[in-house]
Amino acid sequence: VSAPLEPVRREADHLRILDQRELPERLVHLRCRGVEEVAEAIRTLAVRGAPAIGIAAAYGVSLAADNAARAGEDVRSAARAASDLLETTRPTAVNLFYALKRMRRVLDDGGSDAEDLPRALRAEADAVLAEDLATGEAIARHGLSVFPESGEVSVLTHCNAGGLATGGWGTALAPIYAAHASGRRVAVFADETRPLLQGSRLTAWELHHAGIPVTVLVDGASASLLGRRRVDLVIVGADRIAANGDTANKIGTYAVALAAREAGIPFYVAAPISTFDLATARGADIPIEERGPEEVLAGRGAPGAAAYNPAFDVTPARLIAGWITERGVLRPPFPELAEQKAD
Ligand code: MRU
Asked: Is the Cβ atom of 198 under 6 angstroms away from ligand 1?
């Protein structure tokens, strides 16, 4: 089954990126011919969402290797420099570092000589993408197990953890697509997600195109929606999950989790295993990206005002009912991930 969306696609001599800054008004694709352009696309959120950032970065390294080979330059050092550059683009989503670590492993593997390297790197980037697509389908399957058994299901989500944020299926939205495909009536409430509006621009766009009813609300309205018990459950994505289950996701997620707890509505995180960072013990240790004041003050902010603009917050594990992954619905201390801890 091919995925509904292709936010990142490798073409012969470039990486095609669906420019998410332009949605929903325009469907524009960037053609990134070098790693600098890929890094810029990640930094400016043309491509965003933890898994999609990792996929784009993996292809960025592969592109740099191909370009170096074509120019007769040293492939290994070009690919290493590309990886160094990509590591600086965004700090919070661990999938970026996960994907780059995989590319590094190929680079450091003495088995591939210079001629084989571009092919090996391309194969690894393709694998990162293919595994993400398979993961999305598995998350969809496991996610359905936390839905009410029958009747219409109504889900609140925050930010965009859909096809656009991944290889094409999504994480938080994957079970919603699966429920809809199986003929179940499903309705989604999408928080607007200030300041960059990933909810109203991206989540609403992709769900509407899939024929799934979607209602946008301002971020300040989610506590009221939950308090009135208008949804059955909350599902959000994640950018990094610490070993104790504390979960970093788009700013505003924590407030939704608090309101869900108060209302007695289950709050789930859906994410691939690659979003777990077992080397980070707790949420307070997760690096949080701070973005510029213009994102907050643009529009009607009073001139001279300062802005507080963290891009992510950390929801404490105790507010989370379960972590929906490709290996099932997990809970701390995540015994299923024990072998990874040894890495
Ligand atoms: O700043 P963004 O748009 O990259 O933030 C994205 C999120 O917070 C998503 O919820 C998260 O990356 C999970 S995407 C499957």
From this structure: yes
